[in-house]
Amino acid sequence: MILLVNKIWEFVGKEISKTTTPNEFAEFEELDAKAKVIILDGVKDHLIPHLTKNTTHDVWKALQDLFSNKNENPLMALREKLQSTKMMDGDNVA
């Protein structure tokens, strides 16, 4: 939402064209840097090393790669662990 409000959401999906003028490139770099700062400000510190990319588009793609669930096995293992969890006598619910 912050990117939309600041009118810089487009930089998530935008890559710089090779045919841009120096003025267009300077404007792109400035707005792209603002968008990247907003995204990096919103993630936990331990993720920052994974997101040291050139453009906002690259950072967003790296976040997608980190959090997309490409494999169902970990999810199924967690679901099975949850279903097989049982309380012992004297255990606290918390």
Question: How would you explain this protein's 3D organization?
Answer:
With 94 residues, the protein is an all-alpha fold. It has one domain. The chain is built from 4 helices and no strands. The longest helix has 20 residues. The model has no long low-confidence stretch (mean pLDDT 83).
Show the helix and strand layout.
Elements: H1 2-5, H2 22-41, H3 56-67, H4 73-84
Short characterization:
Helix content is 51%, strand content 0%.
Keywords:
94 residues, mainly alpha, elongated
Listing every helix as H and every strand as E from the N terminus to the C terminus, the arrangement reads: HHHH
- Whole-number count of domains: 1
| Structure classification | mainly alpha
Average residue pLDDT = 83
The percent of residues in helical segments reads: 40-55%
The major beta sheet can be summarized as: none
Per DSSP, the total helix count is 4
N→C terminal distance: 34 Å
* Computed Rg: 20 Å
What general form does the structure show? elongated
- Care to count the β-strands? 0
Low-confidence stretches: none
Proportion of beta-strand residues: under 5%
